[in-house]
Design goal:
Length: 502
């Protein structure tokens, strides 16, 4: 099912297996590296956490926001580190490698240690504000239909041929990522779809990877607590579309940012979207409560995913799969066989006479997309339960409140993951936007009670959207994380309602 021009899945290179490389060999890709001590020291592992050091490890002294890895160099030496990578010389007996930036060096060095596993995989990297998770699920399904054992790395965790492996971050740190890709390649995984976050790009976590295809979904306000400006946010995403990381890319040109990226990308790219200028263009689009369909030239795509925004996600998967050399039959089969994505317009059905949908929408743009999609699924009202996360971009909070009350008939403003912030203070920043939106809203800080209120307000034919947490199974407070899954809570509250059918 894969053409002869698809990604060359090269065999593992001899001599580059973790555990058989000398320090000098590992540093060959870092021209500015200075070695103090034995350059022939053998390295068998890599880590940036001193507690994970085992004899023979290479320890990266990464300077972080809260701690400086150089302070843990002595601990790494005590644990048997073969060498440490530093930005300043330390008082240690083991070999040291000094580089201008440990973080920048960590990716290429880790990739070399683990045999550059990404070159053995059809690696598709997905970046953008919204749609990354859904696109990776689509690519996973397409890989499987094409006869390639699939792997996924992203927000909902890691999967190897369908088997979940929990991971802490959307984009793992470089040593963890390269080790993971090595394991995938060794287990016969041949197609990998990976979410590539702006943090991961800015922090060089994916350096050392070769992406066969890079996918840009869209860009809207998010993560300004980290990037500071939308321009910096855009520039972080654009790193994926450079020769250092990717062989080719596909870009959504239904947005201004996508058009700019298509013009500025320094790798071969193709474009997708609904606009006439898009090379992979959706025509004859149909959206129903059962799913969507559209045509790309002679190829007819049918999907059980709902909402017009999922047309864009499917188009991105079509364009990327074609770039990887996968034929149209496998593309159509893969997209058609995906039943849904956890926490993305995921239905909760307890026999109630109205629809309940749980979605991860946590940006102004995603809230708007989800509520517009919900509106098309009903002749009744749209009710939304909405909160905003703490310790994240504060500027988006009133914008999310405004989108909710403008597009829903009733909004219940509540808490999301307050983290270290006061839930009441977060809600206070949502309310001015909710007032601007003009629709009816109420406030209930307790998330379970807010979900109960939203469900209790629904009548037959309505749609209740529970937004913000999606697939997440816990609610994070300053001093604790409690079990909380919007899907389970909604099901419990529905079952407890008077007249519930179970």
């Amino acid at each position: 099912m894969v053409s002869a021009t698809a990604r060359d899945l090269r065999a593992r290179r001899s001599g580059t297996i973790a555990g058989r490389m000398r320090v000098s060999e590992l540093m060959a890709s870092i021209p500015s590296a200075e070695i103090r001590g034995d350059p022939g020291a053998n390295v068998g592992e890599a880590t940036y956490r001193s507690g994970d050091v085992v004899p023979g490890s290479l320890f990266f002294c990464v300077r972080g926001e809260h701690a400086d890895g150089h302070d843990f160099g002595p601990d790494a030496e005590r644990r048997g580190a073969a060498a440490v990578v530093v930005e300043r010389w330390l008082d240690l007996r083991c070999p040291q490698v000094r580089v201008p930036s440990v973080r920048v060096a960590m990716g290429p060095v880790s990739a070399a240690l683990f045999g550059r596993p990404s070159t053995e995989l059809a690696l598709a990297g997905v970046t953008g504000t919204n749609g990354k998770t859904t696109t990776t699920y689509l690519m996973e399904s397409i890989f499987r239909a094409a006869g390639l054992r699939p792997g996924v790395i992203g927000t909902t965790g890691v999967r190897m041929d369908g088997t979940p492996l929990p991971f802490d971050r959307t984009t793992p740190e470089a040593p963890d990522l390269q080790r993971l890709l090595r394991g995938m390649a060794d287990q016969g995984i041949r197609g990998v779809a990976m979410e590539v976050s702006s943090h991961g790009l800015d922090q060089h976590r994916v350096d050392g990877c070769r992406f066969a295809s890079a996918i840009f979904t869209n860009l809207s306000q998010d993560h300004l607590d980290y990037h500071g400006t939308m321009e910096a946010y855009f520039e972080a995403k654009a790193r994926l579309f450079t020769p250092e990381l990717s062989d080719g890319g596909v870009i959504n040109v239904d947005t201004l940012e996508g058009n700019r990226l298509a013009a500025e990308a320094t790798i071969p790219v193709s474009t997708f979207g609904a606009e006439p200028r898009a090379e992979v263009r959706a025509e004859e689009v149909s959206i129903t409560a059962q799913g969507l369909s559209f045509r790309v030239g002679p190829l007819r795509i049918r999907s059980r995913l709902r909402g017009h925004f999922n047309v864009s996600n499917c188009l991105g998967a079509v364009a990327s799969a074609r770039q990887l050399g996968i034929d149209d039959d496998a593309i159509a089969e893969g997209i058609g066989s995906l039943a849904g994505v956890p926490g993305r317009l995921e239905p909760v059905d307890a026999g109630q006479p109205f629809a309940v949908l749980v979605d991860y929408a946590h940006t102004p743009d995603s809230v708007e997309n989800v509520l517009r999609a919900a509106r098309k699924l009903t002749q009744g009202r749209v009710i939304v339960v909405l909160g905003c996360g703490g310790d994240r971009d504060r500027l988006k909070r009133p914008l999310m409140g405004e989108a909710a009350t403008r597009l829903a008939d009733l909004t219940v403003v509540t808490s999301d993951n307050p983290r270290s912030e006061d839930p009441g203070a977060i809600i206070a920043e949502i309310i001015p936007g909710a007032e601007r939106g003009g629709g009816s809203f109420t406030v209930e800080p307790d998330r379970r009670r807010a979900i109960r209120m939203g469900l209790a307000a629904a009548v037959p034919g309505d749609v209740v959207v529970i937004a913000g947490k999606g697939h997440e199974t816990g609610q994070q407070f300053a001093d604790r994380t409690i079990p909380f899954d919007d899907r389970l809570v909604a099901a419990e509250e529905l079952a407890a309602m008077p007249g519930a059918t179970g």
